[in-house]
Design a protein that fits this description.
Elements (H helix, E strand, L loop, with lengths): L4 H22 L2 H4 L3 H25 L5 H53 L5 H23 L3 H28 L3 H25 L4 H21 L7 H20 L11 H12 L1
């Protein structure tokens, strides 16, 4: 079967769209995915443009023959199926990371509560100091989950590191003075508190890779171009419906995957409950 000029032209336009989109996605992609609204707007706009360009190419070029349309529909179906699979896998990745952040919030609350109780194993003065430090540390951990401003987050992290150093120095000083197995329990509890914060921070950094976002976006753009090129009716609503249908899962994935930028966030319920319990004692 000879290659038709319209098909070659359409392929060239598709490659141009993909290249331009790839450059745009590589520039500032990491900051864009932190804002689910930006993901929704950008994905919807780029997909609509791709579908519109595909529709223009279809109207300007000759009609596809029956055999060509069958081959075209096969490619179109395969592309849409691949996009659906990638969206499903990405959603599963985002949900897994969200659950991980929730589990570490609970783990961190349990570690702080255990360290607070085991502070009784320390000498009286050191026990009092550790309890006061743990209360202040707990307040900082609650703020860590609620904060959104970058400057405030930086200050919270700085205060957290300072409190961690004070907690460890107080506990280790008491343990070095009385190196007993009972004292080792208090040291182990404090070590769990510090480790829990590190695990939490690692979970918040564990996001869907930018390369996965780029691949998903490029396939979505290509699919919309194919739909626009293959649509037989002029001005069909499908050219607007498909970008919207695809952009909504993109928005949801970005929302779940973003610890601070989205609506769906991990509430520090366990930490807040622990703070209220400790201050009521």
């Amino acid at each position: 079967m000879p290659i038709r000029p319209s098909c070659v032209q359409a392929a060239g336009i598709a490659c141009t769209i993909i290249c331009v989109a790839q450059v745009g996605q590589l520039v500032g992609m990491s900051s864009v995915v932190n804002s689910p609204v930006s993901v929704l707007v950008i994905s919807l706009a780029t997909q609509c443009v791709a579908a519109y360009i595909g529709d223009i190419m279809r109207r300007r070029g000759p009609r596809l023959t029956e055999d060509e349309r069958k081959d075209f529909e096969t490619v179109q179906t395969a592309a849409l199926t691949l996009l659906a699979l990638i969206i499903g896998f990405s959603f599963a990745m985002a949900v897994t990371r969200y659950d991980q952040r929730k589990n570490y919030e609970q783990t961190e609350a349990n570690a702080i509560g255990t360290a607070y109780v085991r502070a009784d194993l320390l000498p009286a003065k050191d026990a009092k100091d550790v309890r006061e430090l743990l209360k202040r540390y707990l307040d900082q951990r609650v703020l860590f989950y609620l904060a959104r401003d970058e400057q405030k987050i930086s200050q919270i992290n700085s205060d957290t590191r300072t409190l961690q150093a004070d907690l460890w120095s107080t506990t280790s000083r008491a343990a070095s003075t009385q190196p007993t197995p009972v004292m080792a329990l208090a040291v182990a509890s404090m070590n769990d508190v510090l480790n829990a914060q590190g695990y939490t921070q690692a979970a918040w950094w564990n996001r869907i890779p930018v390369a996965a976002w780029g691949m998903m976006g490029l396939i979505a753009i290509a699919c919309n171009f194919l739909v626009g090129y293959g649509e037989r009716r002029r001005g069909a609503p499908l050219l607007l419906v498909l970008p919207l249908i695809i952009s909504i899962p993109f928005f949801l994935i970005a929302d779940i995957d973003s610890p601070r930028g989205g609506i769906i966030r991990v509430p520090p319920q366990n930490l807040i409950a622990l703070s209220a319990n400790l201050r009521s004692q």
